[in-house]
Amino acid sequence: METKDFGRVRYEKDGAIARLVLTWPEKANKQDSKMVWAMDDALREADRDWDVKVLIVKAEGKGFCAGHAMGAIEDDYPEMAEDRAATGTQYKSSADLFLWPVLKLWEFPKPTIAQVHGYAVGAGSYWALIPDITIASDDAYFQMPLPQAVGFPTGETMIEPWVFMNYKRSAEYLFQSKTLSAAEAHAWGAVNQVVPREELEKAVEEMAARIARAPLSTLMMTKSLNKRAWELMGMRSHMQMSTDLLELSTHCGDVQAHMAKMAARSGNKPRQAMLAAEEEANKAG
Questions:
Q1: Kind of pairing, strands 193-195 and 141-143?
Q2: Which of helix, strand or coil describes residue 180?
């Protein structure tokens, strides 16, 4: 097996199968800019390798990915600090970090499989659900905490209407920042399979091997036709609009007030802030 270290991501190649392994478990594999660019580099590596037919995205540690890093912008996202200094906004840097790289994963020309265990939260849920196939362990869960915990309408690339392909379920999930168990995500059509944690890797590797039996050209054309069906319905344009409205929301007074209130509850930990708010509401009720 060949390996390359891209910093936050390890790239593995074993015949026709490549793996992108998130390797920042001490920080819950959060998406700081170094993680984003490492992912970008690893995708480029797999794309340019003619031997690779299938790409697996997986992670080390207790969970898959906890989403955006929520520390000091200067440390986690120097691109955003530069954008603020130059334009007074984070519009371009948000797109550079969290729109175009996500679209690169969506548009990756070869079949992709997400191998998800534990948490897949915020933008981490995008990396878990946007691949062509998602296989989750029975301890996995999915959440987009931003509407409730921060006040943002979405992440930079709202995928939920397209992943659920169900208006009612997308609304239920997003408005409440609802946590979905792996079983619920499977019932909602967002996950292909749910298996015991100890069987996760075997299930993913077996599916990847079956897919890789087909010619590379066939797989790429099949994926292109499947993907374009969604794009013809507007998925790619809609994902770009998410970045626009997220940036707009940061300038709204009620959103800014909500952000300050939730940050005071639990610092920069969205899920904990939500739990604290729910506990307060239950006591008041």
A1: unpaired
A2: strand
Instruction: Determine the structural domain holding residue 32 and report its residue range.
Output: 2-284
The DSSP result for 184-229, as a single string, is HHHHTTS-SEEE-GGGHHHHHHHHHHHHTTS-HHHHHHHHHHHHHH
93-112 pLDDT, tens digit per residue, is: 999 999 999 999 999 999 99
Q: Which amino acid is at 152?
A: F
**Cβ contact 154:255 at 8 Å:** no
Backbone phi and psi for residue 115, each to the nearest 5 degrees, phi listed first: -105, 100
Q: What CA–CA distance (Å, rounded) separates 196 from 18?
A: 23
163 close to 129: Cβ distance less than 8 angstroms = yes
Bridge partners of 59, per DSSP, are: 22
CA distance 65 to 105: 15
φ and ψ at residue 3, rounded to 5 degrees: -135, 150
Q: Which residues are within 8 A (CB) of 175 and not within 5 positions of it... i.e. 6 or more apart?
A: 147
The model's pLDDT over 172-193, given as tens digits with 9 standing for 90+, comes to: 999 999 999 999 999 999 999 9
Average pLDDT over residues 123-130: 97
Cα end-to-end span (Å), the chain: 58
Distance CA(196)–CA(183), nearest Å, equals 11
d(CA 103, CA 159): 11
Overall average pLDDT of the 18-46 stretch = 97
Predicted structure pTM score? 0.94
Cβ-based burial of 5 (10 A; exposed 0-12, middle 13-18, buried ≥19): exposed
Tally the domains of the chain: 1
Is the CB of residue 250 less than 8 Å from the CB of residue 152?
Answer: yes
CATH number of the domain to which 151 belongs: 3.90.226.10
